[in-house]
Amino acid sequence: MDISEALPGPRRRGLVVDDEPAIRELLTVFLEGLDFEVRTAPDGPAGLAAFNAEPFDLILVDFQMPGMTGLEMAAEVRRTDLQIPIALITGIVDTLEAAAVAQAGTIHTFVKPFDLNELANWLQSLFPPLSSPTGE
Fold it and tell me: Which fold has domain 12-125?
């Protein structure tokens, strides 16, 4: 998928949680280019507060943040929402155990530096084009 193409269908809402301002900005610009409305948070507690305050279609969360890890935040989100796609973003692959990632409820992991085309393809798999009213 060309990352400059917006995803078809209604506007989606994404939450980006990362303690690195540059990553938050990169993902915000990227998702907005795909016609997402984006909110950001600098850490897990702020991300949970945003999640509890308004609905989202997607969460991208950093693994290692001060105060609360991305896995801890994902596990908290899963207590109230079993369906929302949650992707973990990390630069620390060695410390991630598949069982812990699965238990926290994340459905995909992107390793920093991540490929934006891979992210776009993953988003396309989550939000496929809606069929037209004529069935084409």
Answer: Rossmann fold (3.40.50)
Secondary structure of residue 54 in the 3-state scheme: coil
DSSP classification of residue 39: E
Print pLDDT tens along the chain (136 aa). Answer: 444 455 555 689 999 999 999 999 999 999 999 889 999 999 999 999 999 999 999 999 998 898 899 989 999 999 999 899 999 888 776 555 655 655 566 678 888 888 899 999 999 888 876 333 444 4
Q: Are 15 and 51 in contact (CB under 8 A)?
A: yes
Please list, in sequence order, all residues whose beta carbon lies within 8 angstroms of the beta carbon of residue 66, skipping any fewer than 6 positions away.
19, 43
**Where are the chain's structural domains?**
12-125
